[in-house]
Amino acid sequence: MNEAQSLQQAIDEPVHLMDYDPVWPARFDAERTRLLERFPDDLLDVQHIGSTAISGMPAKPIIDVMAGVASMAMADALFDPLLDYGYVTSQEFNASLTDRRWFMRHANGQRTHHLHVVVHDGDLWNKRLAFRDTLRSDAALSARYAALKRELASCHREDREAYTRAKGDFVRSIVETG
Fold it and tell me: One short Pfam family name for this protein (predicted)?
């Protein structure tokens, strides 16, 4: 499979949840180190977010990385350097985002990492960490989210955006009350 085929397959990859894999934190650590070595003056912090950051949570096996920068202007300045560093993205999709920039790494037709570049200690930064930390500390809530994710993955297997939107009310209920 060539690079273009691998990318297209990764873009079209269906929603498939896996049981929690204890190797996910090490994969995050490796990517965090890689990013901080390449962008030591630009990235203020790098955090593991998303379901792969929550022990026991089923997840798409994609490591969600949140990189904090000083401003959205800095996020924009990192756009081309991140593309040169092995990430891909959609200019059109990023043009629709006001509070972050989104990138993806892939290999062998599968997504491996999602990188969310956001303003460090801004609203989105704090909400994503609050969501992660709440689920890490509340086993009952985490179990409810896991059940919801499984149900939605079966309903929206071929539509990643619908799957993500369908989780929205649950996510908002956590970050707006936390």
Answer: GrpB
The three-state secondary structure class of 113 is strand
Q: How far apart are CA 58 and CA 143, in angstroms?
A: 10
- Residues forming a β-bridge with 68: 45, 118
**Of 95, 108, 113, whose CA–CA distance to 59 is shortest?**
113
pLDDT at residue 157, as a whole number: 87
Overall residue count recorded for the chain in this entry = 178
- Domains by residue range for the chain, with CATH: 3-171 (3.30.460.10)
- Contact (Cβ atoms closer than 8 angstroms) between residue 104 and residue 87: yes
Residue 10, CA distances (Å) to 26, 66, 135, 157 in order: 22, 20, 28, 14
Per-residue model confidence as pLDDT tens digits over 108-153: 888 999 999 999 999 999 999 999 999 999 999 999 999 999 999 9
- CA torsion, ordered 147, 150, 152, 153, to nearest 10 deg: 170
pTM of the entire structure? 0.92
